[in-house]
Amino acid sequence: MIQFLQQLVNGISIGSIYALMAVGYSLVYSIMNFSNFAHGSVIMLGSYFGFFAMTLLGLPFGLAFVTAALGSAFVAVSLERLAYKPLRERKAPFLYFIITAMGASIFIDNFVIATIGPTPKMFPPIFAEGPIRLGQVALGRIDLAMFAISAVCLLILILFIDYTKMGKAIQATAYNMKASALMGINPNMIIIVVFGIGGALAGVAGVLYGMKYQVFPTIGNITLKSFIAAVFGGLGSLPGALLGALLLGLIETLVSGYLSTQYRDLIAFIILIAMLVIRPSGIMGKNVEDKA
Amino acid sequence: MSIRKVLWLGLALVLVLAGCGGAQKADIVKIGWLGPKTGDTALWGQAEYDTLVMLVEQYNAKGGIDVGGKMHKIELIGYDDKGDSTEAVNIAKRLTSQDKVSAVVGPQGSGEAIPIAPVMNEAKVPAVATTATNPKVTVTESGAVNPFMFRACFTDPYQGAVAATFAYQKLGKRKAAIFMTVDDAYSAGLTQFFRESFTKQGGQVVAEVSFTAGEKDFRAPLTKIKASNPDVIFCPNYYTDVALSAKQARELGIDQVMLGGDGWPSENLISLAGTALEGCFFVNHLDFNDPAVADFKNAYKAKYNKNAELNSYMAHDAFLMVVDAITRAKSIKGEDIQKALKTTDVQGVTGHIKIGPTNDPVAKDAAIIKIVGKEMLFQEKIQGQ
Lengths: 292, 385
Hints:
By secondary structure, chain A is mostly helical. Chain A has eleven helices and two strands, in the order ααααββααααααα.
């Protein structure tokens, strides 16, 4: 029973990282209808921004977050301006967006490998060592911080989307870009805002990930899991991305805890495929067509 | 064919034969070496070559080596294999067919040592690898022993037995958990030997849990280990995984001692792990601070004005094995030296080397290193059981 509770805690903690990452995929998808595969590389850069802010500039932990969020937001918006905007203006097929995103991702990863190097780096210790114990269940201090920071970021995001004018404009654009443009909402502006928010969250996720594990150039590969979580929960839906991420984290942990690590991905992906067969739009997705 | 051509050919033949005969007459024993002098691993190759040059000078100054009552000077013939397997095969062919060496020291890596095995077997010239720890260097996939391949170092899996012996006898642990990498020959070999040795001595392996290479979150498998309540955790993994998994284990409240093999030592291990590995141990080939290696270490330092590498010590012992075998064989023929190598029983700087049926040193001393603060401290030398 204690082992089960501990695995549950582990699963939720992994899920909450996936959630922060998955939201970035979902946001962009809801507006632009394509999966921004460069998101993982932006997360990786965020992790390095935070790391260098703390080690080279000697900034405190909180400011490192802000630096990482601003830096990643800047990278994400630049990526949109440089890589996706020309495609949008030419009304290129969605496949081109995906290929461009993958290309950008490979470029960024290798740029970091070539300039900074492939050796993993460790964040300076931020929290006191040793877990907090609840009975026999150990709660990592970093895990608690991660859960809290993720929750706060996501809560702010949901409030922003639901209760501000800009948030409403994003929803309108997601619903129908042409019609909302006719109503006076500038789609270019919305796209920049969405990439900026996605990038900032990626920066926060990157720092959290780096703190919890390590900072290394291929963090982006792991964020594919969060993309799966986003699809699982329903691409384009924020609550869906959250739910999908938590479920994926739990399934993975329970499978590797009770069966074997070797079966973890196998079973997680079988559930994903089954889900897509039974409910192609994911748990909470709205639109069924073209889930590229 | 004109008379003139036949005459020229005859003359050439006589010259060639005379040349060979001349070389054979002088009392020389040729020892080959191959290893990387360029490329990523050049540092280690150069260290080996420098060691051999120094040793050959020392022996020749004393008149050479005694082969059946007659002193033979040593001629060292070394080539750069660039740490490349194709290059190594070419050099092995050249050393055996062209230079006609009696024995070869090297190569250093398993990647070069495995492909040259057929060449050495065919030419019937023995090679003594220095740091090639992969079991397949001496024993082929099908389980047959490569008769002409030997090594001075212990094999990967043997470290598992060393760790088990240390855990059981020195640390007094009785319940071990093993945390290993899935589908990794190194990790699997160490695990197997650890399990066999630990249970044979009376210990119990309470959990054997694996993770996938490239994993960053180990908490699910680690929670399984925690539930099995071991006294000690054996982690035959590479240092990045070791550091990260140790940190996560401590976060989960697993405070047992961890043990590992030569995948641990790295400049980065402690900076990545922080304090998570405090008081943990790992097995290594030797320790540079071990008093037994001091003489050689100082001589090397005096001659080259740099510190001896692990490869210097291993090359020293590989060379020692060859010289010992030549002396006992009373012959400079490859086949005779090979027979003598099979019964090697010498004291090297890296420990006692006794060659077993698989041409590997058996029950060789290994160094136990303890992690204390930011230091890796030599504890003691022990043998695996």
